[in-house]
Each structure stands twice: as C-alpha cells, then as structure tokens.
Amino acid sequence: MSCSFRWFINAKLRTKLLLLVIPTMLLLLCVTLTLSFLVFNQYEAMVYGSTEQILNMAAGEIEDNLMRIESIESSLIGSDEIQSALSLTEPNARRREPTTDYNRLALGVYGKMGKCLAENPFVSSISIYVEDQSFFSGSEIMLESQEEEEDLAWILTEAAEGKGKTVWLPRGDKLLCVKEIRDIRTMTLSPLGVVVMRVDLKNLAEESLCAEADSGYLPRICILSGTSIIFQNISERVPAFSVPPGSGYQILSIGEGKSFVTYTDDSTLGWRYILSVPFDSVSGQMTTMKTGVVTAVVLLSLLLILLLLRMVRSLTEAFGVLAQRMEQFASGDFSVEPDLRFLTRTDEAGLLHRGFDSMARDVRTLVQDNYLKRLLLKDAELKSLQRQLNPHFLFNTLQTVDWMAKARRQTDISQIVEALGRLLRYTLQEDTGLVPLAAETEAVRNYIAIQKYRYQERLEVYFQIPESLGDVRIPKLALQNIVENSIKYALEAMLETCRITISAREADMGVVLTVEDNGPGIDEMLLSKPMQPEGTRAGLGIGLRNIQQRIHLLFSDQYGLRLHNTGHGTVVEIHLPR
C-alpha cells in the first residue's frame, strides 16, 4: 500500500470530502464549458444556414412575382382584343380615327389592359405604343408618361432588339417590363407595337422580404444585372470584391457596423441578388445564450461550494442528533423513531445511527413481547383452522354446486359460487405473508362480486389502480379486510347508495393505497385512537391493529395505516414501500 493511499485512508473525513468534491467540481466545469462551445458552434452554423435560406427564399419570391408579371404581359399580348386592335389589316385601332370600329377596338384594348392591371398589385400602369398611337392604363399615367417620353426611343429600341422576348429596364424605384407585340393570329410574327408595364419594384421587394423574413427586421436588398444595379435599398453598396460568384453568405462591414450578407446567382432572369441584415439581429439570440451559459456556470460553481459546506455541516450535525436521541431514549422514552436522513448512509455517522436504531428496536421488542405473542397465537390459531379444512373436498363441492346451478340456468348462483371458489382458493393458498397488489385486487373483486348480489344497487365500487403498480407487495387480505370494514360500517349505516373507491398512487416514500367511502364516518373519539383493540365498534380496532402490526413487522414503523374523516365519508390509507 503506497504512502499516499495510506495517508488518504487515515485522513480526516473533512479532508477526504474536500479531495473528492473539489476535483469533481473542476472536472464538471471543464466538461460543461467544452460542451457549451461545441453546441454554440453547431448552433451558430444552423442559424447562419437558416438565415441564408430565408433570405434566398425572399429573393426567390421577388423573382416569382416578376415571372407572374411577365406571364400577365404575355397573356395581354396574345389576347384577341390586342391582336385585333393592332392588326395590320383594316379595321384596326393603330391610328386614332373617329369611327365606330376604332371606338370598339379601343374600348377592347382598355378593357383588357384594365383586367391585366388588376391581376397584380405591383403593376402600376400599362402602356402600348403603336405608330403614332398610344394606349395608357394605370394610376400614374401622366407622371410616368412624361418621364417616358425622354427615353421612349431607347425603350422602343430595346424592345425591338428583344425580338419578341421580355426586356427588363430599370428606372429608379420602378422596373419596366418591355416586350414587342408580334402578330400571332396570322403566324407572320410581324411587329405590331410595344407594350410597357411599369412595376413598383420597391413595393414588390419590400413585401416579398416581409413575407419570407418573419424575424422582426426587414432585410436590405441589391439586385444586379452584371455590374448594373437594377434595384437597391442598401444605404452603402456592398463591395463587389467581397462577394464571390455563386451562392453563400459572409459577414461584412457595411457602413458603421457588421452585416450578415447572403448572395445568389440562381436566377431565371440572370440577375444577382445580394441581401443584407444587421449582424446583431442574427447573433443577438446567440449572444444571449452565451451569457446565460456563463451565468449558469457561475451559479453552478456557487452551488457546488454550498453543497460542500452543507456536506461538512451534515457530518457534524449527525453526531449531535445521535447524542440527542440517545439522551431521549435513556430517559425512558422508547418512542424514538429512526432518523430517515441516516438510514441509507454508509459512512461512520450512518453506521452509528443504524446501530442505535437496531438497539432501540430490540428494547422495544422486549417491551412489546407479550402483545406480539398474543398476536402470533391468534395467527397460529387461524392457520390451524385453515389447515383443518380439506381444500380439495371444498372446491369439488363448489364445482358440483356450480354445475347444478348452470344446469338449472341459475346464473346468479353460478356466478356467486365461482367468485366464492376463487376467493377461497386465494385465501387458503400458502404464501410468505406478502402477495402482489394485482392478486390482492383480484381477490377484492371476487369479494365485491359476492356482496353485489346481496346489496344490489345499494353498493357501488370503483377501482383506480394503475397496472404499473400491480407488482407492489402487500400483506395478504389486508386490502380485503379494509373494504369489508367499509361495507360493514358505511353501507349498513346508511340508506343511500354506498360508493367505495379503491385507488393506488406512488408517493415520496413508496406507494399509497386508498379506500374511501361516502358513509357517516368514524366517531371522532374512536378516530383519535383507531388502532386500539378496545375500540367501541366491535372488530374495527382489532382488525386495523392487526394490519398495522403486520405492516410494521414486514417493513418498518414508517409504513402502516392512516385514517381520517372527509366530512362526507372515511378514508383509509395503506402506506407501503415500492
């Protein structure tokens, strides 16, 4: 044996506790911090990936809206109203003329433009240019038409170069959806004119971002076509060299603070979307979590220190409590109960307490010897009477009666005999004194079945026993005796229906079985000493006293019976270990 180990064995208990608890506390702190950093790294990657996905979905929503506008424009161009009005053959509305045909065709054009305008809230107006004729529809016609006159030649040139394809032209907060109208009725595809849809890109982008980015902040966006800006509401442009091609995210310094920037080239229109949100809005929750973990670690350290002090104090307290109990016992008070705090301890204090409890039990056993002998004598007499019965003869007789009752269609008698047979078989079978709660419950059900034929609707019994408690050990016939008492002292003392509820539940010290009735209750004089054999109601005190004593002998004094009145009946509780 090494010197260090020998020193540890001979060291004081307080030193041993310090050598065990302090390294454990340090190890726990290291493990907690390590796991916290690992979790934070994983969570950080998840948050960034989720934010990137949300912002990309917002960009996709913008493009989906633009594709819907392009689809509306195509349906407008291919409609019969537009094709007829702009036809190269007469009659048409290519020139303004005060004729009936012109008015009819022009009304058709305006009607179709109005319908298309109503299909999408982001289209502010629609214009159609053909030779020296123009058609307008929308809420901002005058202002936009004036601005457009300056660039009309450029717009018509871009539309012609598109050769029937949609061309997107940026104009400030607006985006022009321009397309050349071709003759598709005659399949010549001859140019008929140009349609221009003005899209409120600012409103479209903000609503799309609000719909997808449900996180309490509105992302900023920059839409690029090559190096040209289609639209942006970012106050300062993101440096082009900081955003590589493809899709991904970066944390960049934009303006006065950091921003979380996500970018993607995955666009049907060939555009590049760059979206930005303040970095604090993404990392704020993570910062709060880190602060919470640091706080938790500090609190854990304080808790471990307090636990160490409490352990040292409990050691010195154990010897003081033992001295007080010994003094009480020496004065002649034999009712000293075991201190539950030291029953399961394996140190010196626990050993001393258990040794004293053992000695106290031996002394109490000597004092109560006469009573126990009388109790055992009665139990021996009962077992002697049981052995005098011939179980085989009794069961064969009951089977004969059952067979005769069934033969004569006396169903009630047959069921009573069967229940009685099962109850007697359970009562007479040999065991060690403890049976599973499931078996005891089944015996009670057989007993109740017999009593139901006697009392009919005056007796109602309810069982509320979970199957998970079926293996709890209980003294044989203990529950049946208590139910029998409830029938005898509750049902027979009342004219109304007697309701008995039998339930079981788990408690801190084990399991509690409850038998509750709605009878007149127990007399308060008798309730104050319910376990005394000299009770005024015949059999009540003896029966409960025997059950109480059996539980004490089989388990310990901390388990047993408890009785009380509820104001509308009596409750008997059986406290057992799990």
Tags for this entry?
17 strands; 20% strand; five-stranded antiparallel β-sheet; alpha+beta; Heat Shock Protein 90
Helix content: 40-55%
Distance between the termini: 42 Å
Mean pLDDT: 78
Seen as an oligomer or otherwise, the chain set is single chain
CATH superfamily of the domain at 44-282: PAS domain
Counting H and I runs of at least 4 residues, what is the number of helices? 15
Query: What is the overall silhouette?
Result: elongated
Structure, explained:
- 54% of the residues lie in helices and 20% in strands.
- By secondary structure, it is of the alpha+beta class.
- A hairpin with a 2-residue loop joins β6 (220-225) and β7 (228-232).
- The protein is elongated, with a radius of gyration of 46 Å.
- The model is unreliable at 141-147 and 532-539 (pLDDT under 50).
In short:
The chain has 578 residues and is of the alpha+beta class. Among the domains are: 44-282, 2-Layer Sandwich (Beta-Lactamase); 431-576, 2-Layer Sandwich (Heat Shock Protein 90), CATH 3.30.565. Helices cover 54% and strands 20% of the residues.
Topology of this protein?
Elements lengths: L2 H8 L2 H65 L2 H6 L14 H20 L3 E8 L2 E6 L2 H22 L4 E5 L2 E9 L8 E10 H12 L7 E6 L2 E5 L15 E7 L2 E8 L7 E7 H52 L17 H20 L1 H20 L2 H17 L3 H18 L5 E3 H19 L3 E6 L8 E3 L2 H12 L8 E10 L2 E8 L6 H4 L12 H15 L5 E6 L4 E7 L2
Parallel strand pairs: 12-14
Antiparallel strand pairs: 1-2, 1-5, 3-4, 4-5, 6-7, 6-10, 8-9, 9-10, 11-13, 14-15, 15-17, 16-17
Helix pairs in contact: 2-4, 2-6, 2-7, 7-8, 10-11, 11-12, 12-13, 13-15
